[in-house]
Fold:
Amino acid sequence: MVKIFSIEDRKSTLDYILSTAKDCPKIVSLVQVGSGAEGFRDEKSDLDFVIAYDNNESMTEVMDYMHNKISENYNLIFYTQSEEKHLQVYVLDNFLEIDIGFGCYEHAAALKPAFKVLFDNSGTVEDKMIQSRTTMDERIYGSKQKKDLETARNYAWTHLMHAAVAIKRNNYFRTVGELEFVRKIYIDLLGDRYKLESAVNREIDNLPDYEKEAIKSTYITDDSRETLWACLINLTDLIYKELEGSSMPISKEMLVEYYNDLK
Structure:
């Protein structure tokens, strides 16, 4: 029988990561991020850390050190490492996930507001992370928002048109696919506006209730033409409202006229 990690298991693993990081002379600081930085969302929350090392030449050595120490002490069912992303992901045999990001302490920055410095030999990491919050959201969400707006302007309207044609042709699964494509664009735009992570809808549950209800109105609950048209129109209204002030090749009025011609 598979043993799923308990709160005690998670605490024990956190303590091991902390002591292991402290034992490495090249590791300057260990920072807990994610829900654990605020006391964990629930008993199934995973562990997320950022390790700050002493200089840029130490990254590979420090990543190897952490991998060796964790794999020596735990049975792993999954492990991956990306030096490009400065990230390691572990899944232990009790299904506890451990994500560890890596960076030089001189460039310490907080990607999210919640973080907890577990130790800091430099005495500078926490201040650097606090100061970074004044510009980090713009660096993260500002550039992403520009890309998402460009994607919306270039592709949302054409996939809405494709969805309308699919409904006309009674192509249910094509309709679902086209609507899912545009809904993802819309959710990305909402994530940018509310500064929430939208990948796989990760933080979208934190939206205001009225925003979540609006998104729900675009999900297909049956395969009737009436439901498909209603979802398409609802999504059209939402995406064009979010894009107010943006230059669109096809206006909402033109699109609705196109729909009416197909019905």
